[in-house]
Structures are given as C-alpha cells and as structure tokens.
Amino acid sequence: MAKQEEVFKKVISHAKEYGYVFQSSEIYDGLSAVYDYGQNGAELKKNIREYWWNAMVHLNENIVGLDSAIFMHPTTWKASGHVDAFNDPLIDNKDSKKRYRADVLVEDHVAKIEAKIDKEVQKAAKRFGESFDKEQFLTTNARVLGYREKADTIIKRLTRSLEDENLADVRSLIEELEIVCPLSGSKNWTDVKQFNLMFGTQLGASAESAMDLYLRPETAQGIFVNFLNVQKTGRLKIPFGIAQVGKAFRNEIVARQFIFRMREFEQMEMQFFIKPGSQKEWYEYWKEKRMKWHLSLGLGDDNYRFHDHDKLAHYADAAADIEFRFPFGFKELEGIHSRTDFDLANHQKYSGKKLQYFDTDLNESYVPYVVETSIGLDRMFLAVFSKSLVEEELENGSTRTLLKIPAILAPTKAAVLPLVKKDGLPEIAHRIVEDLKWNYNVIYDEKDAIGRRYRRQDAVGTPFCITVDHQTKDDQTVTLRYRDSMDQKRIPLSEVNRTLTSELDMRKWLQKIG
C-alpha cells in the first residue's frame, strides 16, 4: 500500500511539473477537488475525447452526436429520480472531524483483502514458474478461497443494507470490520446519513422571479429529453444511439484521489435505444465493444476487468463496470447499464408528452429500452497518464523518466530538434515544423544538449523526435527517434510526413476494435 501511495504521488507531481494538471485557483490556496488542465493536459484530454468520438459516432452508422445544455428544467431531475435517490451514505469520524463515504470505507477494506489474493498469486507464480495455472490456483487454494469468501460476504451485506436503506447496519458493518479513520486511526464513528449530491443554483434576474435549478449531475438526461427531436430530424430507426460529451457536477463531500473523483468533471456517454426484450443481447454487445476500445490503446490487458453489479441502480436490470488498475487499485472506469424504459417512461409521465417510437416493421408504438455506455473522461485521462508514467533503468546504469502515452493520444506528436543553433540547421528544422503543423501538433526545441532534449521529450510524452544535423545538409536525411525504444533511424526529409502518418493513422488504431 505504501508503494502504491508513492507511485500515486509521483503521478500527481509529474502531472503538474509537465503542464498536465494544476490545482484550480492555486494562487489562492486552491479549491478542493477542482482541477485545471494545463497546456499538455488540454491536448491529451482533447485527443482522448476525439478517439472516443471517432470510435462511437463516426464508425457507427446508427449513432449520432448531441450537445445538450448544462441547465435543464428542474422537473427533469424529479423524473430521473435524482431528487429522491441521488444520495451517498456518509459517516463522520468524531476524532479527526473528517467525513467519508461509508460504502467506500467498506470497499477499500475489501480491496485490501483482494490485495492479499493478488499477493498469494504472485508468490505462487514465482514458486511454480511457467507451469503455474492461475485459474486453477484461484479456484483451489484454500487461503485464496477463504479471502474470496470473506470479501464476497462483506460486499453482499453492504449491498443488501444499502438497498434496504438500513444505514444502521452499514455502520455496524464498519464497526465489526474494525475499520479505522485513514487520517487518525480512530474507530469513533457517527451514524451514517444520506447526502444529496446535486448542486443547486438559480435562473433569473431577480431573487423574486428566480427559478431554482440544478447543475446537471450527469449528461444522460439531456439525451433522453431530446430523444424524439433527434430521432425524427435524423429519421433514425431503432436500434440507434445518441452520444454526448459534456460537463457534469456533483457535490462530492468526500472528493479524493486527484482527478479520479471531482466536483466538476466530464462524461462521454452513449444511450442506445432498442426494442424491449432485446436488452440482454445489446448489453452483452456493448460490454464487449467497449472493452475492445480500451484494449486498442495498448495499456495492458491485465489492467482491465469486468465487475458485475450486485446492487443495481433504480433504473437498471443489469449493470457492469469496466474497472482499471489505477495506482490505488482497481476502480471503475466505465459503466455499461441496461436502463430498461425507466428514463423515457418517466419523462413521458412527468412532461405529459409521448416519448414513443413507431416501429414500422411491427406496426406498433412503444417506449424504447436503453443500453448505456458511460465513461468519465477525467478518469480515462488518469488511467492513461498513470499507466504511461514509468522509470526505466538504462544499460549504462542511469535512469530515465518517460510518459509512454499511446502515440495517437500524445499531446505533442513530434519534437523537431536542430543538433546545434547554427550552420543553417535551425532554418531546416523550422521548415519541417511548418510542413508538419498542418496535420500534427509539433514543437521546435533548440535549448540544451541533444541528450537532455531527448530526456525532456521522453518525460513530457512526445513519441517522436526528429533531429536535424550536419548530415541533413549533405544528403537531405534526418534522424527519427522513437520514445519508447530509443531506436533511431535515418529517413529522407521527404518521408518525414508520411512516416508520422503511418504511425498516427486513426484508422489503424481504431481497426483493433473490430
């Protein structure tokens, strides 16, 4: 656990040092759980957004995009269930005066048990070598089975208590597990209470005429209330999807883990409208499709896993998370939910307007069912950034720090470096930048020795360096250096653009999805 915390501290420090993420309003001592994206962070975030949008909208003929407003009529949130059910169970420690999510305290306790399972697996793998069968070990080892049963029993009890709104039992569970305050080590807990997460605001020129509103806690409802607008103007036939990227706001009392849980965040969601009764098929389809999207980036297959929900949201008949191995353990990255017809049916009820689809094949109208895919853009940013940050020991005994961000997502695609600041080399380098900048975000760098410049670009995550030297003047070639391998090769000046295109072709990356 201490090692994980050390790794996470390095992630946060590196993100600030290299212009990825800053604490919001830092000169005024910051604002808790609110962050700004720096010059490189803004580019990485944009590239992740585009990679998702291209895969979701441009590659699917039956999915279109939407950009709905943050402000929505307040009845929207009554219909969606957020006014009555959008709560977190909170508990205070009387000694440290700190507030925590009660369910997260229990889940973190379970994560420690699961870490013991991982440790047993690692020990066994080392002991048995190539003959080690991980699946057999997990299903037969007595110690592992004991840990698994203990973890499952805790989660089932927590789920049952939350579903029954038995907050007293949630507190009893925390006490029975002897969970301590992470800050003080104290077990002196208050009762568990529910807290609504929506931010309230007002719309209007004067206090007397102002309407009470909420900042939207999710982007999905903007899609649902526009279902008929999009379907009719786009002449779309079921099954079809509506995708959206946008800001959402939650008054997280227990906001932590850097940009993993923030009060202002961005979601990438797609609502897929289907015929009732077909939800199981489409739910499985989108689980597989979304996992392939994640794996296409090459962050490591073993860093992802599915987690099927025991506790279902009020609108769902099936739900699963794609969890990612963050520096602080496996946590939710994306959710796939079978939402039934809850949303459209409720908006139809509260608005008095029909939100139905006329199926010409069946010659009947019905309220469509929905399968949702929802991923946090900020969490995806953290997943990419944290897994890409590595320290390598080189053959000469020195080390280098690099960000192995997938090239398609890298903020800067290439750095153009003249070997020296004279002899006409800067002029050639500037011409290369002028040629490349129409297609890629590239930079020119002439400060410091070439080795230090390479290290600087490694640390910021630039996948390619193009070095102009005196040989360039003789034979019109440059050195192309690859960040991850540090391999170098000479290529003609005329081939630089084409070479980058072959490495950064969106089509090549997205074809891995199938």
What does it look like?
It contains 18 helices and 23 strands. The protein has 514 residues and is of the alpha+beta class. The model has no long low-confidence stretch (mean pLDDT 93). Among the domains are: 87-196, Herpes Virus-1 (2-Layer Sandwich), CATH 3.30.40; 412-513, 3-Layer(aba) Sandwich (Rossmann fold), CATH 3.40.50.
Helix content: 25-40%
Which term fits the overall shape? globular
Largest sheet: 7 strands, mixed
Mean pLDDT level: 93
Strand order of the largest sheet: 3-9-10-16-13-12-11
Reported by name, the CATH topology of the domain at 87-196 is Herpes Virus-1
Span of the ends, CA to CA = 38 Å
Could you list the spans in which at least 5 consecutive residues all have pLDDT below 50? none
Strand count: 23
Radius of gyration: 26 Å
Query: How would you describe the oligomerization state of the chains in this entry?
Result: single chain
Please identify the top-level CATH class of the domain at 87-196: Alpha Beta
The number of helical elements comes to 18
CATH architecture of the domain at 87-196: 2-Layer Sandwich
Q: What structural category do the secondary elements indicate?
A: alpha+beta
How much of the residues is beta strand, in percent?
15-25%
